[in-house]
Amino acid sequence: MDVSPDIGSLAGESVVVIGGGFGGLSTACYLADAGADVTLLEKNGSLGGRASRLEVDGFRFDMGPSWYLMPDVFERFFAHFDRTPEEYYSVSQLDPHYRVFWKDGDQVDVVPELEANRELFESYEPGAGEALDRYLEKARYNYEVGMEHFVYEDRPRLRDYVDTDVLRHAHGLSLLGSMQGHVEDYFEHPKLQQLMQYSLVFLGGSPTNTPALYNLMSHVDFNMGVHYPDGGIAAVVDGIVELGSELGVEYVTDAEATAIEGHRGGFAVDAANGERYLADLVVSDADYAHTERELLPPEKRQYTEEYWESRTYAPSAFLVYLGVEGEVPELAHHTLVLPTEWDDHFERIFEDPSWPEDPAYYLCVPSKTDDAVAPEGHSNLFALVPIAAGLEDDAETRERYRERLLADIAENTGTDLRDRIVVEETFSVSEFADRYNSYRGSALGLAHTLSQTSLLRPSHASDAVDGLYFTGSYTTPGIGVPMCLISGQLTAEYVAGSE
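That's the Phytoene desaturase family protein sequence above. Prediction below.
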């Protein structure tokens, strides 16, 4: 596997990168390594974008991403700069990978040992253990071929697919159909189908609107494992920021971009700190819709207001960060609580936007693995309920839903947190919109639907402003920390003209 893309030389070029999420941090590293003079502007007081860190009274919370998946992507990223992840942070594999509570009282652990997982599947459905082997074999193929030839290689035009080499690699990939249909070909039991599909929440989709190709996430989960970086995902941010500093990137925080003016060779980026940053080129890792709608004049926009209104957005989230007294033995580091019938929840995200009556949700307890994230004798956890982007989340609604969520946790996991809480913060639609300028308060951006995948996502290079580029989750390859790291490479290739 080639780990060193030929970005080309950018010696003598100056670049302003707007936004310090994983896409912006990655792009900045690649551009600086190629010789550019890179200044990264971040709206907030710390870097990482949605992967920010919240510190309160000795508790340290990852505010956004909390799953360290696809370790090969991180290894490949650092290898480009002749480094390894271990030079910046340490990683351990979790056991179990995660725990699932169903609301009918059933409970399972998915573990690193494949034989134990086969036995688990077989216990629900005769023949499901063998079906799991076949499913994971297909997922492995989709992952290895898809990543190398359709993720690391961007194909922005339809004619890029009408090529004998592309068609040869595409043969056998699950390019058509939905995840729901694909999973039903292997498993009949609804709980086994849910185990194969839970990761779709991280892709911002549902079983019926996400392409079958994303069964590759099961290879990531079952074959590659679920890991934890010591210090949380924020430690990965720290590592990439340190790498960028070594490469010469200048970081400016509390510097929200307010306008982009000019074109290649003569850009000016105005910021709320009163400064004007001049550059030859600009890359935006800010929310794509925000960049177009708020930072550019109408004649410099690629997409209309109707375009943004018509898109399918990944969920927002209702998050409750909790510091609690004592331990939570019933919960694993990663825990999912699922209704046996979850269609209603997905419908309330994508079809009939409303707060879910019987929510599926995720609990993260990093203090099960990392003593440093909570004071002695306490546990650190957060609860995340996926909800529709754009929902009203006034104080009364949030308090009512908080009570419902805590009661649901107690009823379905046996963990009653209500009388043990010493630290509590909430974060929802309003904060995603205010803190990250996220369109409609989406937690992730554009969903990975059948009509918003690959070349159907917004472009890395503006066709309205010469020298303006985009990176991050709206572009290819899409949503998730690993994908945003890769988007940095693809954007850098565009900037350097090597695409």
